[in-house]
Each structure stands twice: as structure tokens, then as C-alpha cells.
């Protein structure tokens, strides 16, 4: 049975822009965020408190949080204690930590082994929970790693269990390089849902490198998942995951869900208006199904 309602977590302002080589002005980012809020999106990743040496595009994180309208649940990413502190100072109430199942990926992304990251995050999560912060944990390379190849499902589930025991509110389980297929999506999310449903919110995060993300979402829906990370315009990619392209597009996911009778509360036309605003400021061509129809109507 498919869910009646799905929550979309818009990750465009963060995942969508973090890999953009051209500097995007703060005002353009804020305009994009506000236009997305107009579409009915209620959960969004705004930015990341990461090292500006590693990810220069996110150096304006404090101002992005300070200047954007407060609508619904707004996440910022933080890889470590310093990021979490800066995020709280900026007034963030929902913080996303992130770790890769693959050691090699985690080292390239965060300069620590997975184990080192988990040990360092444990007291950070404890503190965030004591301060009343909503904590989301993003699990990268949950299917395939650009360096290590196929990832063992049990390793993903063990990492998820550990985060749940640390008290996180949400797990966002990611196909970082867009290599998962629908059978793999169903099998992982079905097992996660059977074991963790009710203990934590479960969210799926698909990149669309091989154009299987919509099929993977449908498979995850069948496994009982009703929260999906998507990015307006299909923007996105991790600077430390070579070969990966953007996230599955918000407008295409909303269109598919509404077509099969699942409510999202999001207006596709308004998502496309937000995409039109950011399009001139990004190098990536925007070629999503619904945005193309919107431009050619
Ligand atoms: P490091 O070089 O090991 O850091 O980088 P360090 O702890 O040795 O500190 C070095 C310097 O950085 C120090 O400053 C720290 O204060 C500073 P100095 O004393 O030299 O002046 N520093 C920071 N500054 C700002 N914010 C911070 C911070 N931490 C330390 N948080 C570090 C380690 C984690 C900082 C670095 O590797 C980093 O920033 N990585 C972030 C990478 C990233 O943003 N990746 C993309 C997001 S994840 C993603 O896209 C995947 C996802 O979409 C899901 C999926 O699709 O898989 C979520
Ligand atoms: Mg991602």
C-alpha cells in the first residue's frame, strides 16, 4: 500500500549549490529559498556549516540562516562539533550531521574514518538533543561508493542503528552517486522500515546520475517510506563524490506523486518559478521533465 501523503525535504539550496563552481551571491540564494517556500515546501536544507576551505560556496552559511524567512523545518548541515556550534550560534533549530558508510568516502569528505566521525559525533548529538535541536543524520554511500564500490547492506543498517541509539530524530539514507537500482532501494528501505519505523523518521535521498531515481523512489514508497530529499531543478552533487550528478528534481517527484494520488502540498508551477530564478546563476544546465514543459508552455 502506498502512503497518502509524502513529505518533501528540499535540498536545492544546500546539495544543489554546494558543488557550484561559480560563486552564487547571497541575495540569489535567499531569493531561491524564498521562492521555494512559496511553493508549499515545509522542510528544507538551507546551507552547511563546513570548512570554507573545503566548500567555498557554503562560506556564507551564517548569513543565509540569518536572512531567510523562518518557514517550517529548516536544516543546516554540520560535519563536526565546530559546525554544530556555529550552526547553533546562527540560530539553527534543526541540524543535519553526515557520515559515509564507506571509510574511504568519509575520509575524502570529512577527513576522518567513519568510526572517528561517529565517535566525535556522539557527544555532539547528545548536546544538540539536550538543547532541544532536531537532529537529522545523513548516511552517505548507503548503496555504492565511488571509491569502494558496492556497500554491504548490514554495514548501512548497523550505522543507522547506532545513530538511532544516539537519539537522532531522522535518518536520511543516501544513494550519493546515483547508482542504486529499484530492487536494492526496496530491499534496504524495507529492512530499515521494518526495524526502525516508529523509532526515527526515515527519509530517502537519491541522486539521479543513472536516471533511476524516480524508480528508486517508487520502490522506497512500496517499502513504506514517505519522506524524500529532492532538489529543485535537479541541481546537486557532492564535491567529494566524483562522477555523481544532481539529486532527483523536486518538480519531477512532486509531479509523479500527485499523478498517482499522493499529496505533497507542493505546487509544481511555483517550484519551476524558483528554478527559473536560480537557473542563470548556476553552470549546470537544467533539463528536468517538468521544468522543460514549464519553459516551453
Ligand atoms: P579538517 O581540515 O580535518 O578540519 O576538515 P580540522 O578539524 O583539522 O580543522 C582545520 C581548520 O578548519 C580549523 O581552522 C578549524 O577551526 C576549521 P584553523 O585552526 O586552521 O583556522 N574547521 C571549520 N571551519 C568551519 N566550519 C567547520 C569547521 N571544522 C573545522 N565545521 C572538515 C574537516 C569536516 C571541516 C572538512 O572536511 C569539511 O568541511 N568537510 C565538508 C565536506 C562537505 O561539505 N561535503 C558535502 C556535504 S555531504 C553531502 O553532500 C552528502 C549528502 O548530500 C548525502 C549524499 O548524497 O550522500 C548529505
Ligand atoms: Mg546528496
UniProtKB/TrEMBL annotation:
Protein family: Belongs to the HMG-CoA lyase family.
GO MF annotations in UniProt: hydroxymethylglutaryl-CoA lyase activity; metal ion binding
InterPro entries for this protein: Aldolase_TIM, HMGL, PYR_CT
PANTHER family xref list: HYDROXYMETHYLGLUTARYL-COA LYASE
Biological source species: Sporosarcina thermotolerans
Record's protein name: Hydroxymethylglutaryl-CoA lyase
Domain annotation Pyruvate carboxyltransferase: ranges: 6-272
Keyword field: Lyase, Metal-binding
Domain of life per record: Bacteria
Gene Ontology biological process terms from the UniProt entry: ketone body biosynthetic process; L-leucine catabolic process
Amino acid at each position: 500500500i502506498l502512503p497518502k501523503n509524502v513529505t518533501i525535504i528540499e535540498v536545492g539550496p544546500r546539495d544543489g549549490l554546494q558543488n557550484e563552481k561559480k560563486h552564487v551571491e547571497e541575495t540569489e540564494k535567499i531569493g531561491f529559498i524564498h521562492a521555494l517556500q512559496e511553493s508549499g515546501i515545509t522542510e528544507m536544507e538551507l546551507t552547511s556549516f563546513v570548512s570554507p576551505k573545503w566548500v567555498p560556496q557554503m562560506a556564507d552559511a551564517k548569513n543565509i540562516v540569518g536572512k531567510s524567512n523562518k518557514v517550517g523545518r529548516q536544516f543546516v548541515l554540520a560535519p563536526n562539533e565546530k559546525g554544530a556550534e556555529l550552526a547553533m550560534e546562527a540560530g539553527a533549530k534543526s541540524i543535519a550531521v553526515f557520515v559515509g558508510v564507506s571509510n574511504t568516502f568519509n575520509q575524502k569528505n570529512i577527513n576522518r574514518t567513519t568510526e572517528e566521525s561517529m565517535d566525535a559525533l556522539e557527544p555532539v548529538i547528545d548536546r544538540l538533543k539536550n538543547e532541544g535541536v532536531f537532529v537529522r543524520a545523513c548516511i552517505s554511500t548507503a548503496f555504492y561508493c565511488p571509491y569502494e564500490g558496492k556497500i554491504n547492506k548490514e554495514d548501512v543498517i548497523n550505522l543507522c542503528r547506532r545513530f538511532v541509539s544516539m537519539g537522532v530524530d531522522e535518518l536520511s539514507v543516501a544513494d550519493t552517486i546515483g547508482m542504486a537500482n529499484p530492487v536494492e532501494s526496496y530491499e534496504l528501505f524495507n529492512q530499515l522500515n521494518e526495524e526502525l519505523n516508529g523509532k526515527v523518521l526515515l527519509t530517502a535521498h537519491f541522486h539521479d546520475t543513472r536516471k533511476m531515481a524516480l524508480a528508486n523512489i517508487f520502490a522506497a514508497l512500496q517499502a513504506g517510506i514517505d519522506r524524500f530529499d529532492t532538489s529543485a531543478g535537479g541541481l546537486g552533487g557532492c564535491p567529494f563524490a566524483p562522477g555523481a550528478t544532481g539529486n532527483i528534481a523536486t518538480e519531477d517527484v512532486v509531479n509523479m506523486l500527485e499523478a498517482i494520488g499522493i499529496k505533497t502540498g507542493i505546487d509544481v508551477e511555483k517550484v519551476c518559478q524558483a528554478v527559473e530564478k536560480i537557473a542563470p546563476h548556476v553552470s549546470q544546465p537544467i533539463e528536468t521533465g517538468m521544468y522543460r514543459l514549464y519553459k516551453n508552455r
